[in-house]
Amino acid sequence: MVEKINSEIFGTDFTVEFVLEKLKIGNPDFHQCDLKNLVKVDAKDITGGSAFFSQVITLNFEWNDPTILPKSVVLKVPGIQAVAKDDDNLEDTEAYLEFCHENELIVYKFLSNSSKEFNTSLKIPNVYYGSNYSRSHRKGLIIMDDLSVNGASLKLLPGLNNIQVENTVTELARIHALGWKSGKVREIELNAREDNFPGEMKQIAQQLRSLRPSVFNKLLDKIDNIYNDKVFSYAVYNDEIKFGFPPTLVHSDLWSSNILFEKRDNVITNNLLSIIDWQSGHPGNPSVDIGRLLGINTSVDYRRKNTERLLKHYYEIVCQEMDNKPPLTFDQLKYAYAAGMGYVTMFLTFGAPYYYDMPAVVGTDENRETLRTELLDRVQYFLEDTIEAYQRENITV
User: pTM of the full predicted structure?
Assistant: First the structure.
């Protein structure tokens, strides 16, 4: 839709003039993005029903001089979306969102500073402005690159192909290695939530019992004791050393919507463009990023056949990035992956009941039940493999 230049954008508290002012500050390439040079602005909500905690809006600018930048930007406006609304836990969800939005800004700043320090580039968005979210106001905002011009995300089902997975694992290894090289990851604060987050996930997971009773009644009984702070701490921690190596920056929410690939002629390619939405980023176990990537975005057969190969690929990239002086051994990585499977299981069983009814995931056509079956298969067999891994490695819960 074409926005009036002085009106609020899509019912937010932000005007086009406000956005242009923030873009100019500290961005010399945008020094001409004034209202006086603006002919028209088109705004589009691209959330598409798949976002839980934000409204995502693109602004496309038409300038009186075609050399003026930027051509477009994205506004990420935090707020609880319909898919995540739960009136019974609204206050807890609001508190979580306050932390996540501030945390995303902290993580982007950390990645930007670290990449400059070590003279490297990462496949993440450029952030031009950020302000914190609060229940008491509507000023929370991130202004960043519009990656929808050259990129797009894949549907969760069927998910990523082998080359796309490999390219994502490569970038994860580069980001994790940068975190280790910086030596400053532990300065990123963990979310000091007072509520029982594993317990909340366990409660939502029980909905799986009604979706496939013959399977999930038994499986959920078997993993009943996984939903606790100890297993959560196998992934989220800022200990100096765990599993024999220091923590690094973990994305922690790698489902397909947060992984963008380049598109050409409106066709998605295998080339990774960006890993986005770092609001859940934290110090911890890097292998849970690989677990979440494979567990929800790939088929059971692919995951089972390729996990060890991809862990080796990941380890090789870490070694390259760190001049063959990695902070961990491959055996330590494998054990950390196994330990982190409990955390991945929590999020799989928490997310699947939502995904099961999301048109953006399972569609609305005749393939819906087939996709639902595939979704539940991925969850079922990851749970089975988690139980086996914990028994094999004697991992305590």
Answer: 0.93
